[in-house]
Amino acid sequence: MNYQTIKNMKKTIILLLLIQLSGIVNGQENKEVSLTFNHIALSVKDVNISAKFYTDVLNLKIIPLPPEAKDVKWMSLGDGKELHLLSVLKEDVKTNKAIHLALSTADFDEFVQKLREMNIEYSDFPGNLNKINVRPDGIRQVFFQDPDGYWIEVNSINE
């Protein structure tokens, strides 16, 4: 091989390497950001009344916060997910049933019985009192409201 052929081969190899490396760099530039659910925050009138509701009815555990966080309560939803209750805003919040917090339980019948015992009104999605909704996939669900009017769904785990 002559000098010119070797020089051209080197240029070709370098060009191929650059093309290959540009794909790696380009792949890194197009990497999508991965997000996971962390918490939902609700504006409530009285953080203590709301926290009592969520601990008594849904058995959520309060996450300790510093004493200066007087108008805030954080509650564990499990698996590192949280519910934050904030009573720092005083405006009324208006929402409808389509906007709701949904939780699942393997003890659905026992949970519905607990709502009855606590005199908490529940309904199916259309709003029929004391009725259980059945989704097209067979999951049973009930809807009820917290002290500030937020809708909560509790549903059965796929049985």
From TrEMBL:
<dbReference type="InterPro" id="IPR029068">
    <property type="entry name" value="Glyas_Bleomycin-R_OHBP_Dase"/>
</dbReference>
<dbReference type="InterPro" id="IPR037523">
    <property type="entry name" value="VOC_core"/>
</dbReference>
<keyword id="KW-0732">Signal</keyword>
<protein>
    <submittedName>
        <fullName>VOC family protein</fullName>
    </submittedName>
</protein>
<feature type="domain" description="VOC">
    <location>
        <begin position="36"/>
        <end position="157"/>
    </location>
</feature>
<feature type="signal peptide">
    <location>
        <begin position="1"/>
        <end position="27"/>
    </location>
</feature>
<dbReference type="InterPro" id="IPR004360">
    <property type="entry name" value="Glyas_Fos-R_dOase_dom"/>
</dbReference>
<dbReference type="Pfam" id="PF00903">
    <property type="entry name" value="Glyoxalase"/>
</dbReference>
